[in-house]
Amino acid sequence: MIKLYTINCPNCKALESMLGKKGIEYEKIEDKDEIVAKGREVHILSAPFLEVDGEYLKFVDAMKWVSKQ
Fold it and tell me: In terms of C-beta distances under 8 Å and separation of at least 24 residues, what long-range contacts does 22-27 make, across chains too?
């Protein structure tokens, strides 16, 4: 299961676009309270970030992961 934590910023839109181009199915999380809580829990201070099979990827790492798919 892939989850995209997004606030619809330019980086968020770029990551979402790349997921779409690669045909990767994902759940989109836009609830700011949930994003802040999860971000604190996993020590990621800004959106977007991905959750991939329980692993959390910051924007740069998420873009690298998607490009390899």
Answer: 22/66, 22/67, 22/69, 24/66, 24/69, 26/2, 26/50, 27/1, 27/2, 27/3
Tens digits of per-residue pLDDT, 4-40?
Answer: 999 999 999 999 999 999 999 999 999 999 999 998 9
CATH of the domain at 48: 3.40.30.10
Number of domains in the chain: 1
pTM of the model: 0.93
Q: Which domain holds residue 15?
A: 2-68
| pLDDT at res. 45 | 87
